Amino acid sequence: MRRLRACLGAAAAVSLAAAGTTALVAGSASGATTALSNRWYAAAPYLMPLDNDPPNPSAIMDATGLKAFQLAFVLAPDGGGCSPTWGGTAPVSSDTAVRSVIDTIRAKGGDVSVSIGGYGGTKLGQACADPASTAAAYQQVITKYGLHAIDFDLEEPEYENTAAIRNEIGAAKILQQNNPGLYVSVTTAGTADGTGWFGKQMLLEAKSQGFTPNNFSIMPFDGGFNGAASQTAALTNFNTILQSTFGWDQATAYAHEGFSGMNGRSDTGEYFSQADFQTVLDYATSHNMDRFTFWSLNRDRQCTPADNGGRTSGTCSSVTQNSWDFAAYSVKFAGVTPPTTTPTPTPTPTPTPGACKAAWSGTAVYTAGNEVSYQQHNWKAKWWTQNEAPGASQWGPWQDEGAC
């Protein structure tokens, strides 16, 4: 499970140059503002503006120099229909809360991208009839907020739906054509091999439709990863997949490749420290990758001492850190040195194992919330299950709660 989730208006022509390049002023779309360089949109960390105890973006900007934020997530309405909402419940058409956040960021010289999809909820690609109607729904978001960038977060379970992915990729292509200069990223699940079968099918769908975004990004976490070395290996493998799928050489593939990490403790109990982020950042910049981002700013702060190392939270990282340690790496990727007051990254402590729960049994029936131990780890059931061993599948019914 990823991240505890709980066009007709004119757009700016955005340069692919390094941070600091000024783009043209956007047209008459509502809320349009001067675009940042694409490098900032490529560095924008995810922020949930309505959930998971949203941090103050002004405070983050002042502390780190960050200018761009990736706001998440736009979904179809929970009750059905082909219209954009925030989180399935707050219609974009009548939104004022997220608009206020965007206005605050822009007033300080920053900007936002909007991410659509994510792990939970119903996606517009699933709810809308075809690529054109899917694109029309997303165009409402672009026009309302005067966007210069958008992210298609295509993952479990939507990317298992062939028709939905066809709608999403088709919509992305339409938006790219109708909004000149729009920065488009496509984010999907990462595996040790780069990405899995469904991720590869998504790439083939993009190829068949003749669609090339600014980048395809993978999320190398929640899949048996262990620190930066496993993540950079996955990025290398994903580069090979991009080459073979699109016929690109290595450099072109890296120029269309992105990294989307998770700071601190992942959903499956993996740990990614500040040092890991630095290693992946060095890899991304040395290979001229297009994107470096992470989930999320809501988590970029330390938990209370009792929580550190013991759980995965949507509002803190479960590692030892100062607030906004991880945002500093996004700023570095954008090409700007963070303020000297940015705290020095601190090492992640080794979690102390807790007591083991009752041993898992293949014959017992477990329901959501039941806890067991298996292979020296404690596990919590996410839903009803029987005879499914914990850890057998990254998308299985068990949540790893750490060593015991």
Describe the secondary-structure layout:
Blueprint: H1 38-43, E1 46-47, H2 57-64, E2 68-75, E3 85-86, E4 90-91, H3 97-107, E5 111-117, H4 124-127, H5 131-145, E6 149-153, H6 162-178, E7 183-189, H7 197-209, E8 215-219, H8 228-246, H9 250-255, E9 257-262, E10 264-265, E11 271-272, H10 274-286, E12 291-295, H11 327-333, E13 365-366, E14 371-374, E15 377-381, E16 385-386, E17 398-403
Parallel strand pairs: 1-2, 2-5, 5-6, 6-7, 7-8, 8-9, 9-12
Antiparallel strand pairs: 2-3, 3-4, 10-11, 13-16, 14-15, 15-17
Structural class: alpha/beta
What average pLDDT do the residues reach?
87
Distance between the termini: 22 Å
Beta-strand share of residues: 15-25%
Order of helices and strands: HEHEEEHEHHEHEHEHHEEEHEHEEEEE
| Alpha carbon gyration radius | 20 Å
Description:
There is one protein chain. The protein is of the alpha/beta class. It has helices at 38-43, 57-64, 97-107, 124-127, 131-145, 162-178, 197-209, 228-246, 250-255, 274-286, 327-333, and strands spanning 46-47, 68-75, 85-86, 90-91, 111-117, 149-153, 183-189, 215-219, 257-262, 264-265, 271-272, 291-295, 365-366, 371-374, 377-381, 385-386, 398-403. The strands form four sheets. Strands 1, 2, 3, 4, 5, 6, 7, 8, 9 and 12 form a ten-stranded mixed beta sheet that branches. A three-stranded antiparallel beta sheet has the order 14-15-17, with no helix packed on it. Strand 6 (149-153), helix 6 and strand 7 form a beta-alpha-beta unit. Helix 6 (162-178) crosses helix 7, helix 7 (197-209) packs parallel to helix 8 and helix 8 (228-246) runs parallel beside helix 10. The longest helix has 19 residues, at 228-246. Residues 5-30 and 341-346 have low confidence and may be disordered.
